[in-house]
């Protein structure tokens, strides 16, 4: 699992930030959908609705030392990890009665938990990989070795994607990659903090080389080599904002054209080694990157390229190795980049790895024990209600022409709803898990997934496939699948409580559903049609109107400060900000329709309308370490939780009315934005 990649292999847009899943051991009862003790009623909701909704929660919930942030979804993830730990410890017991699925997850967990064996092995598991690199005798052999390092983020990413122009087919794809820092901007920004982080990174790389046995002087020179090569690759990479335009990533070509573009890398040798010797065509997301990579291969010496490969090998496996390598890896990626004070306990990390490598095997046990059919039915009911609200919204738009409306409705009606878990579970029978072989299990699991992706190429798309595992506390929309996906893990209290008062349920999970639905029509999603093809179905005039309305949102969020003088990059967060606003508008419409004719009474001194908005506000309760704020400002397409709350409600007249806010109040945007 490479740390922090930018890839177009997964265009799906998730509700939540996938930075650091939070797992602090807890057996506490889940919080209710609306918790008045989490509020701070001394704050005027018309001045700062986030603090009004969450001030009490933040005081009660300091960030745990092994976390970079802590929020309501983190606590849900925490509770899920405890459940998963119970499943895995039972499955890993030597005398457990197990089927083929529970045996695999149990044996993996036992191997990962065997700290004594992992410590005794030291860096020995890297020996075969290091020997392969050491034996390279010419640059022509780099491609063959890179093909054995499929998840080490070496040079570029390679995988399979839906064809942008024919979403029913899967094609091969190559994308930018090859970096050890979270994003290309980390190599190129010249502010003091970026310069400092680059120095810290070089020092970390040097220490890792020393832990492999290199002398300090040699390791220092090797670290500089890594930085020089990666900086060149970064310069050839697209920015995250540029990558928000899918048309900019659509470059289908023959393998012969790719070879002509970058002759220094022997693509045919690479394709043959990964089992695709007759690959005819593929999508090359960033041709400029491939050209930059080609120039670097020609420019740098063979010895320097071997240094680069050695670094990415140890970097890719460090979390699974002995304490010296593990702790140094954490010191930079956990402490320096994210501000974590402590490494997560091993059981938490091992639970994450099982979910990452064997997620649908673990998911079967999780769903059986913790996800009821009743929850699935109620969630699906809410989804359909919010889809009906969107249909009404589209029909009532004053700025969109009938021709574009018709196409929008076709897309809406073609959207698939996936709730809980897949209809067909993934088959892991070909994945060998050996009890006691942690690094070997990791390597085989990565190869299994790579082979699974390769096997899709040239075949019809499996539209029943999921991009998240059932226990995941998150949700997403995939524009090429045109589906919204809600894993069982996110359909738990407090985000979704089937027994809750309807108002906060619609504000929280209803807002989430509306968020994912709106992603189909944000600045990126709107470029795909009902089948998932990259196709322009808008009239030119409607497109101009959309851009103008969307610019209102990006301009608004670009005024918000994240930390110090760093402001939100409104163009990067535009899709998520649009989805947050559109989603809550749709959820409000659906809630009103669902409760039409009912006499709704105040509760806890709060009107039903106020409870709806507080339910939404409390879905974002949380706080983040300063280091992670800086990281997210660069790489995260989501705005900070405070602005996901205040930015949205300030655009809704329904909020102003619910809390009797006067014109000119901070939570009343004088230039209200609205797309959907």
TrEMBL record:
<dbReference type="GO" id="GO:0005886">
    <property type="term" value="C:plasma membrane"/>
</dbReference>
<feature type="signal peptide">
    <location>
        <begin position="1"/>
        <end position="22"/>
    </location>
</feature>
<keyword id="KW-0645">Protease</keyword>
<keyword id="KW-0378">Hydrolase</keyword>
<dbReference type="InterPro" id="IPR000718">
    <property type="entry name" value="Peptidase_M13"/>
</dbReference>
<feature type="domain" description="Peptidase M13 C-terminal">
    <location>
        <begin position="474"/>
        <end position="675"/>
    </location>
</feature>
<feature type="domain" description="Peptidase M13 N-terminal">
    <location>
        <begin position="45"/>
        <end position="422"/>
    </location>
</feature>
<dbReference type="GO" id="GO:0016485">
    <property type="term" value="P:protein processing"/>
</dbReference>
<dbReference type="InterPro" id="IPR008753">
    <property type="entry name" value="Peptidase_M13_N"/>
</dbReference>
<protein>
    <submittedName>
        <fullName>Endothelin-converting enzyme 1</fullName>
        <ecNumber>3.4.24.71</ecNumber>
    </submittedName>
</protein>
<dbReference type="GO" id="GO:0046872">
    <property type="term" value="F:metal ion binding"/>
</dbReference>
<keyword id="KW-0862">Zinc</keyword>
<keyword id="KW-0479">Metal-binding</keyword>
<dbReference type="Pfam" id="PF05649">
    <property type="entry name" value="Peptidase_M13_N"/>
</dbReference>
<keyword id="KW-0482">Metalloprotease</keyword>
<dbReference type="InterPro" id="IPR018497">
    <property type="entry name" value="Peptidase_M13_C"/>
</dbReference>
<dbReference type="GO" id="GO:0004222">
    <property type="term" value="F:metalloendopeptidase activity"/>
</dbReference>
<keyword id="KW-0732">Signal</keyword>
<comment type="similarity">
    <text>Belongs to the peptidase M13 family.</text>
</comment>
<dbReference type="Pfam" id="PF01431">
    <property type="entry name" value="Peptidase_M13"/>
</dbReference>
<dbReference type="InterPro" id="IPR042089">
    <property type="entry name" value="Peptidase_M13_dom_2"/>
</dbReference>
<dbReference type="InterPro" id="IPR024079">
    <property type="entry name" value="MetalloPept_cat_dom_sf"/>
</dbReference>
